[in-house]
Amino acid sequence: MMWFINYFHIQILLIELLFCYRMQRRAHFLVRFLPMTAVYCGLPFLVEGSFFNRHLVWGWFTFGFLIMFVLSGVLVFSCFRMNLRQTVFYCCVAHTLQHMVHCLYRIAEIVLMLNNTAAQALQLVFMALVCVIVWYTLRNRFRESDTVEMRNGPLVAFACVSTLFIYVISYWTTSLEKETVGVLVFDVTTCLLLVFILLDVFRLRSAEKEQMLMQRMLRQEQEQHALSRATIDVINRKCHDLRHQIAALRNMNPQEQEKSIGELEQAVLIYDSFPKSGNENVDLVLAEKYLLAEEEHITIRSVVDGSGFSFMRVEDLYSLLGNALDNAIEATRGEPKETRRIITLSAARRGSMFSVHIENPCAARPLFADGLPVTTKEDTDYHGYGMRSMRYLCEKYGGVMNAAWEAGIFSLDMLFPSAGE
What we know:
Elements: H1 8-20, H2 29-46, E1 57-58, E2 61-62, H3 64-79, H4 84-112, H5 116-141, H6 153-176, H7 181-249, H8 254-267, H9 269-272, H10 280-295, E3 299-304, H11 314-333, E4 342-350, E5 353-361, E6 368-369, E7 372-373, H12 385-396, E8 400-406, E9 409-417
Parallel strand pairs: 3-4
Antiparallel strand pairs: 1-2, 4-5, 5-9, 6-7, 8-9
Helix pairs in contact: 1-3, 1-4, 1-5, 2-3, 3-4, 4-5, 4-6, 4-7, 6-7, 7-8, 7-10, 10-11, 11-12
């Protein structure tokens, strides 16, 4: 059983899993992963002739290895949240590393004239070293739950062509020519160079991503300043109006005074209606959004158990709830009928879960991608991250987020495990 790991398809899968272990997992991960892995690992032993089955051989070429390689990609794609480019890229790098392990063990076997048992043991050692190096490299490249987005199509295409070239040349050499130490050393050198080229994308994409994050943070900070100024402007206008109305009261007759006092009471209702949720941080967010919504003639109706947010860091709470209400206010602003400019917010414990539900009018059905509405703003480099960052925050605390549109109403649901449950 010790040599089970030395099979081509097992080594490919192990290296791929090293690339994926920090990625977000798809729903029902174990239900997907365990049976698919069992079938994948056992398939070559269930098929007569394994990789060299007569139905898979064409002349001197066999498709058996390529089929298992593709199936490994299907497995990791089905179990982890990644796009097709990421899957193809990681699989190609894994194949190149596995081929390098094979060449190293064959060099040692030929040069040292090892028997089969010793050669198999040495292959395990080489495989372990490669796994340690890959894990160490990825640990330094990634932060927790981070990954690299593959946007470079030509690079992914180059990885595919290179992987296929390595496979064909390797099998051609072993099938039609004599396998020599020189050829194997050249193979190792080529694979090593290719891996350096491909893995360098992590450094480049990480730097690009960090720069993008910094730009986004600056943009968000500017937007937050604008929102704060807008809130202060609203308060200043209210105070200015009140000051003039109070001055005018002194010169009014009793009937006019009674009418103006009623108008003043109506004007300050917005302040009396500020929610008291039981969580000071939630109250601050809601108070600011209430003021902004009132200025746009939008009503926010909320029933919020603020204590349910106690598990969340303050900055995450501001980002999550603030983003959700900003999006709702922006969408509701375009509603022509003022009577329909109503945003509904509820947050309460539901058994062992904490539920947050937001509804707002939205006349046009939004476009959805990956379960989230796509931004309609032209500057997609800076806009469209709000919903994604909200989903990231939900998943950070073990929750899920769902967005939907039906009959002119956009709804957003977030569900978290209750703290202490």
